[in-house]
Amino acid sequence: MVLTLRKVLISDEVDAKCIEVLKSNGIDVEKNTKLTKEQLVAEIPKYDGLIVRSATKVTADVINAASNLRIIGRAGTGVDNIDCEAATKKGIIVMNTPGGNTLSAAEHTCAMVVSLSREVPLACQSMKEGRWDRKKFMGSELNGKTLGIIGLGRIGKEVALRMQSFGMKTIGFDPIIPAEVAAEFNVEWMPLEKLWPQIDYVTVHTPLIPQTTNLINDKVFGVCKKGVKIINCARGGIVDEAALLRALESGQCGGAGFDVFVQEPPTDLTLVKHPKMIATPHLGANTSEAQKRVAVEIAEQFVDAVNGKSLFGALNAAAMATALSPDTQPWVNLAQKLGKLAASVNSDIGKEITIIAKGPELAKAGSYLSAAFLSGLLQNSSTGSGDQVVLNLVNAPALAKQMGITVKTETKEVAHGAFKNAVCFRLGNGFCVSGTTSGSEALLLKIKGAQFSSPVCLSGSLLVFRGTGNSQLLPKVAGALGSARISLEAVSTSSEENAAKWGVANLTNPAGGKGVQAIKDCVDFVTMVTV
Ligand SMILES: NC(=O)c1ccc[n+]([C@@H]2O[C@H](COP(=O)([O-])OP(=O)(O)OC[C@H]3O[C@@H](n4cnc5c(N)ncnc54)[C@H](O)[C@@H]3O)[C@@H](O)[C@H]2O)c1
Ligand SMILES: O=C(O)[C@H](O)COP(=O)(O)O
Fold it and tell me: Of 21, 180, 216, 254, which shows the fewest CB atoms inside 10 Å?
């Protein structure tokens, strides 16, 4: 089981269907949309799941207070209100419902384009105020005009398809959508510098990231046609609001349709009140259809994660997503245990790790084997936050990256010896450990190329030792442990490799430092590890 969810908090207005689906799957839910930041920090330790929309700010303070939190679900698309980096460091899965509100957001964008072309909101307002002003509202047709679409993902594509039916020419830019793919939905891909001078309308559909912050600014307005119209139904901050105001005032921008703002709700209403501005209070996803969809989707995604069925929508748990099947659990355990063993033997783990996955079962296991090995290997490494964080398949790869550790995976079709599948982890200093599984058991096969005559069960408290030029290693260690009244389940030694034999003693209880003390005179290296 990847995660256990006892209690989930829903802290934003999410459709009641969400609670229904979670409860009918045995997950306890509380909804409280009135929590202040301080109250959320105080309450969050009670929950192992959290579901939000965009209102709750899941900051590092909230995440660091969340001692039991395993998963944060976003009933919607944008996760910029969630500190994903802090969540990843803490090993918390962050998940959204990609696509659940795509059509609603696309339709809202199209409504903005159409409204701008005919100044529908302003004309409506003038009638409400008792005027019949036919001259003032001279619009222009969309037919034959060029729409620039920045961000050709889910929403950008749907906007393109819809606006083409108005006779608009659609051109666009996206760094990861190739021109051939854009052409499939009739968007002519081009670099931004070529796009700006051609457009009559431009709409942005990117996430708010450093590369897209203030993407449309004074300089861009300067190279666009006079009167260009601009729509932002993605995220506040993609368009520089101060530059937009200047462009609206000078007439360089002929109108804007905004659903999102740098500050929500905005406290300075200068931009919102500009006569050429159509503003809506972040309503892109506010349709009964989209709200039901995202509510059900996030609940079902939580249930699927609990049942080990899928981690659909998870944004920071690539390794975990490949380790959901019950068959992988013994391998995850083994890799974690071998990681702990490697850490206990090596004071310096270096910066390079090679994983050699052997056998048919492990052909695609590189990602979870590496994450699991790292979670054991780095268990005592600092995350930089000063907190003692339990490493798992979410945060271990992130910590390794932060520490500058690179991981390489090799696969081999067959494992050597009696086992069909086996894995070997090698550190940059040449140290390596190999193991396999038998049922749910994790078995150690080799340390530094020295093979154990029978596999060592990796469980409980282990004394790991090495003796050089000592043909009587096993009886001497067993004797020394016996004299110290330390009881054993088993003790094994390896073949000799580079004049050294490795050994592992499975102790019946942890024995503290007594085990190390007892045998230190008959070996040249000994360490204690609990796996
Ligand atoms: N107003 C609303 O209520 C509402 C509703 C849903 C989504 N949204 C927002 O709409 C935006 C788009 O959502 P989506 O579901 O289409 O996301 P998506 O991930 O499907 O598409 C985003 C696209 O932006 C592209 N992109 C990234 N950096 C870029 C850059 N520098 N220049 C150009 N393109 C870039 C990506 O490659 C991707 O293809 C997000 O910001 C999302 O939060 C708003
Ligand atoms: O990113 C999103 O999904 C939209 O911005 C919708 O946000 P909301 O769920 O707060 O309406």
Answer: 180
Domain with CATH 3.30.70.260 in the chain: 460-531
24, containing H or E segment: helix 17-24
CA nearest ligand 1 atom 1, residue = 284
Known catalytic residue: 205? no
Atom of ligand 1 nearest to the CA of 259: 1
Superfamily of segment(s) 7-100+289-314: NAD(P)-binding Rossmann-like Domain (3.40.50.720)
CATH class, domain 102-279, is: alpha beta
Burial of 483 (0-12, 13-18, 19+ CB in 10 A): exposed
Which residues does a 6 A CB cutoff place in the pocket of ligand 1?
77-78, 101-102, 105, 150-156, 173-177, 205-207, 211-212, 233-235, 259-260, 282, 284-285
Residues whose CB is less than 8 angstroms from the CB of residue 62 and which lie 6 or more positions away in sequence, other chains included = 37, 40, 41, 44
Where do the CATH 3.30.1330.90 domains begin and end in the chain?
A: 317-458
Distance in angstroms (rounded) separating the CA atoms of residues 366 and 334:
13
Residue 43 annotated to the active site:
no
How far, in Å, is the centroid of ligand 2 from the Cα of 360?
43
Looking at 264, 352, 441, 497, which residue is catalytic?
264
Q: Of the listed 205, 235, 293, 426, which one is catalytic? A: 235
Instruction: Give me the residues paired with residue 44 across strands.
Output: none
CA dist 195 and 199 (Å) reads 7
3-state secondary structure at position 308: coil
Q: CATH 3.40.50.720 occupies which residues in the chain?
A: 7-100+289-314, 102-279
Q: Is 235 one of the annotated active-site residues of the chain?
A: yes
For residue 216, what is the DSSP state?
B
ipTM above threshold 0.90: yes
Model confidence pLDDT, tens digit, residues 20-79: 999 999 999 999 999 999 999 999 999 999 999 999 999 999 999 999 999 999 999 999
On whether the 317-458 domain is CATH 3.90.420.10, my answer is no
* Fold observed for domain 460-531: Alpha-Beta Plaits (3.30.70)
